[in-house]
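B., you asked whether I could sanity-check this one before it goes into the benchmark set. Here's the sequence:
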Amino acid sequence: MIKPEDNPEFLNSFLDYSITILNKSSNSIKEYNYDLAMFLRFIKLHYHMTDETDLKAITINDMTIDTIKKITLNDIHAFISYLTREYHSKATTRARKVSTIRIFFKYLTRNAKLLDTNPAQDLETPKLDKRLPKYLSLEDSRKLLDITSNEDNRNCERDYAIITLFLNCGMRLSELVGINIQDIDFSECKLNVIGKGNKERTIYLNKACMKAIATYLEVRPKEGVKHDSKFSDKALFLSERKTRISNRTVENVVSNQLRAAGLDTKKYSVHKLRHTAATLMYQYGQVDIRALQELLGHESIATTEIYTHVSNSQVRNAVESNPLANL
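And here's what the prediction gave me:
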C-alpha cells in the first residue's frame, strides 16, 4: 500500500477529495493511488527527470504541479502504450487507468483549479472485447449447493449459507463479507448491503437464503467473538478465529467447494457465482433487465446487458417454436 508521504501534495489532495466529496470506497482510493503513482513515475521517466530505469523504484513525492502542467494528451497516450508494451496490460486494465487519469485531471482543472486546460479532456477509453460471462449451469449450481450442504466439516452451515447467498442474490464478495446481522430484516426477508462507491442497496432474500441464514445462526459462535475495528461482534459470517470473515477466507471456501463438486477452479470463482446468479435469474426467472440492474447494483444498464445473452438451447427452442416449423 502506498503511504501518503510517498505522494506529492496534489495527489493526496485528490485522494482526500475522492473520499470526502466523491464518497469513494477504500478499495477505489487504493486503485486511484496505485494507478496515478504509476502514471507519475512514468512521467518522470518520460521527461528524463530521473536516472532510475526501474519504474517501481522511481519516487514521486518531489513532483510539483509545474510538471503536471506540462503533460499533454500525447504524453498520456505514451503511458498507455508503455503499459501495453512493457506490462502487456489487458484492455480492461488500460481502461481503468484511463478512467482514473480522466477523473484526476478533471479534479485538477475544475475543482482544485490548478490547471488551466485539461489534457485528458479528449482521452478515449480503449476498446474492450465483448465477452460473455462464465457461469455455472443450473445443474452445476444445484450440484455445488448439494455438495456444500453435505460437506463434513465444522463450518458446513456457514459455508452453505455463503454459497446460497452468492448463487441466489448475485452479491459481490465485499458485500457478503460486510453483512452485519442487524442489516437483515427477518420479517421482510431482505437485507441492506454496501456496494461499490459506498452505495447502499436492498437485496431481497428468498426462502432458500432465509433458511440457510437461520440454520447458520443457530451454530454461529456467540461467546468469544472479537470486539475489534472490523466490528466482528456484529458480523454475520465469522472466521474460525471468531472475527469477521475475510475476503481470502470466502474465496478459499468457494474454491474448496467448487473442487469438491468436481468443477474447474481455474474457470470458476467467487465472481463467477455472481455471474451465475444473474444469468439464472434472467434465463429462468424472466427478470426485467432494469430489475436485474437494480438487484446487481450496476450504475450502467450496459453492464447488466452482458447477462441478456441467450444459450444455444434457447436459440434452438426459438426456431422450433416458429409456427411455420411443422409445415
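One thing to flag: The chain has 14 helices and three strands. Otherwise nothing jumped out at me.
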